Amino acid sequence: MKFVSQIKNLTPYVAGTPIEVVAKAYGLEKVVKLASNESPLPPFPEVLEVITDQFDRLNRYPDGEARDLRAALARRYAVEPDQVIIGNGSCELLIWLSLILLEPGAEAVIADPTFLVYEEVTLARGATPVKVPLTNFGNDLKSMAAAVNERTRAVFLTNPHNPTGAYLAAADIAAFAAGLPADCALILDEAYNEYVEEPDSQGGLDLFASNTNVILTRTFSKIYGLCGLRVGYGLCSPEVKEAIDKVRQPFNVNTLAQAAALKALSLESRLEERRQLNREGRRQMYGGLDRLGIGYVRTQSNFLLVEIDQLGVPAAEVPEELLRRGVIVRSGAALGIPDYIRVSVGAPKENEFLLEKLAELK
């Protein structure tokens, strides 16, 4: 069997290990997972109720157009339904965008390090990822602008940045977007937008409204707690949606995901309680790490980078040592930052458990 040539350049995405697998492997009774930037809270009770209401309809295909959810998001963001795309998680949106924008000979500008999927979808299309190193853990917009040329078809920009949690001011992104060629798409990934504390956190919406080459992606996986159902969405021009509809699979978002996301969106006013939990969790992490004398990067998201090169075991061994103690974290080596681990902000007891285990490695 002969595979397409791009396959040799790709690396499978390695997800966080499930709690059950770690517990069994190490004979542990208590395991906390702080590796995948998940919400420590389940979906709202009302969301769980609408999910169960759909069970007797699962013999039918879902709405292939996700009409109700698209209409609700269009109302929420004051756009037209044909400017809304719905995906099986926002990662599916990134795959679609690579399919309609990238091809051999094209380039995509990405930060280094950044969310691994940007590079993978670029390589899968035979296009070239142009990596621009971070500065002070954040996107270097000046250098990214300098990397754009006539072959650049897309720029992937995540805000807050993954994996560092650094935040770019809306005015800086707008200035960057103004310098891009009209035929170069700015894909602004705002998966963690709801956790941002800055007053300009919704500036990406204004940028989208005034630039046809800006594509905004968000998700119900994070603050809404719907990781397990995989539903993301994007705002784009009607032309982009029309192109995407030609490459997306039929019925790509399942019935339960559509119903859950629609109900979750109606409960948006209750997200503040979740923001507050994350706010308090960040303070708990900062305080605990300060007491331990362990460095970290302050964040505008629900995760943070923790410095591990000064612990009592080699940095490369820290993720495994934490696994043995019942804490699942994201290895920085897999993210291109081997002296750090990325840690999700969990519930108070989960955060304290992590801090206790880090203390054991001092």
Helicity range of the residues? 25-40%
CATH top-level class of the largest domain: Alpha Beta
**Helix segment tally:** 13
Helix and strand element order: HEHHEHEHEHEHEHEEHHHEHEEEH
Q: Can you give keywords for this protein?
A:
globular; 15% strand; Aspartate Aminotransferase, domain 2; alpha/beta; 362 residues; single chain; 3-stranded antiparallel β-sheet
Explain this structure to me?
It is a single chain. This protein has 362 residues and is α/β, with parallel strands linked by helices. The protein folds into 2 domains: 5-30 and 270-360, Aspartate Aminotransferase, domain 1 (Alpha-Beta Complex), CATH 3.90.1150.10; 45-268, Type I PLP-dependent aspartate aminotransferase-like (Major domain) (Aspartate Aminotransferase, domain 2). It has helices at residues 19-26, 45-53, 67-77, 90-101, 116-124, 141-147, 170-178, 203-210, 238-245, 255-266, 271-292, 318-324, 348-360, and strands spanning 32-33, 84-87, 107-112, 128-133, 152-158, 185-189, 214-219, 232-235, 303-307, 327-328, 330-331, 340-344. The strands form 3 sheets. Strands 2-8-7-6-5-3-4 form a 7-stranded mixed beta sheet, sandwiched between helices. The chain has a 3-stranded antiparallel beta sheet with strand order 9-12-11, with no helix packed on it. The longest helix has 22 residues, at 271-292. The protein is globular and about 55 Å long. The protein starts with 18 loop residues before the first helix and ends with a helix.
